Amino acid sequence: MPPTRRTVLDRLAEVADSSTAAAVAVFLVGLLLWAAGGWAMVQDHDLYSGPVKFGLLCAAFAIQLTAQRRPALAFGLMVALLAGDFAFGPSLPLWIALTDVIFLAVVGGSDRLAAVVGWFAVLVTAGGAMVALVVLGVRAAMLAGLIGIALTWSPLGYARAVRASRRMADAERHAARAELAALDAERSAAVGEERRRVARDLHDTVAGHLSAVAILAEVAQKKPGDTDVLRSIRAGSLAALDEMRATIALLTAPDDRAVTARLASLDGLIDAAEAAGGSVTVRRPPDLDLPTAVEAVLTRILGEAIANATKHAPGAPLRIDVRREAGSLLLTATNPLLPGRARGEGNGVRNMVFRAESLAGTLTAGAEDGHWSVRARLPLVDR
Fold first, then answer.
1. pTM over 0.85
2. For residues 274 and 312, is the Cβ–Cβ distance under 8 A?
3. Which stretches within the chain are classed as H helix?
């Protein structure tokens, strides 16, 4: 079997495995929401019996598995299921399953299907906001619109970024084979690194903002009259969209200089953390003038630290200290650990370590005396 064909099959197998895992995860989340009394998106509108809820979860699970091979059929079935559920729900687990179906439909479907999914996202977001405006008022309309963005535009944007990455990778592979067949292996490695970089950028930017939006949405439910929280939700959603556009622009740019992360871009994450009840204290030299590469890496590390603190320790103070020392930039970010909360052992910490090492720096993160601490040393060099 030719190497290129084997690579394609391996990737398809990886996508199938990850999609199956996502379907199982959504099924388990649905069970947890059911057990916790969070099945219905409108709390006083849960009209389903237990067997019906289990049947809906099984139907959504089957549709997600179908989306791996027949995305158009799966998307149609999912829309039909949501339409039937709307009169008695709407049910939150089904809308969570929709995000996975949208991603698979756009990534694995045709351009026409991707366009249909895009219009569906527009109609759901705008329609939900209009209905909420007429029935409940302006604040509810804003919240409904933001929920629509989170549930439809977030997977849609990520899937489009993956499609763009794939198309760019395919173009590079064809050009490499046309110029010199011996470069195929090297090109494939470059494509793999590009995909991992896109995943890191989306995780470090879009995911952080969307996590903050989700936390603030919970705060808005508890404080429906707090306009500051609603403004923070809107600002966080717009920031996530801007970051997504910037990442897509990076995919189509000739080099990495098309998008440069600046420390000023952290203001939205700081505002979201404070709107959720926490506080962020930043101490840094007043005349801090950093090389472009160092500022970009510092921004990504701090963004992940702020997003993790907001997600895992909402309401707790976060202290950030940035200082120079012997030709290096030292960073320390510390927040109290809350009982029962995750301790940031996922992709976020690995991404921070990777970014520090990209400048020949170091980074450690872990629990210290009841606090979660991130410590980094970055050489002050322009790479």
1. no
2. no
3. 3-36, 50-67, 71-86, 92-108, 111-135, 138-148, 154-179, 184-202, 208-222, 227-252, 267-275, 292-312, 347-357
Nearest to 326 by CA among 249, 378, 374, 364: 378
Summarised one tens digit per residue, pLDDT across range 54-93 is: 999 999 999 999 988 899 999 999 999 988 888 777 888 8
- Digit-coded pLDDT (tens) for 295-317: 888 888 888 888 888 878 878 89
Sequence length of the chain is 383
Q: Write down all domains in the chain, each with its CATH number in brackets.
A: 3-209 (no CATH), 279-379 (3.30.565.10)
Q: Please report how the helices 154-179 and 92-108 are oriented relative to each other, as an axis angle in degrees rounded to 10.
A: 20
* Dist. CA 125–CA 224, nearest whole Å: 20
Complete DSSP assignment for 50-93: HHHHHHHHHHHHHHHHHHTT-HHHHHHHHHHHHHHHHTT--BHH
DSSP bridge partners of 40? 91
Residue in the structure block whose two tokens are 């991707």 = 114
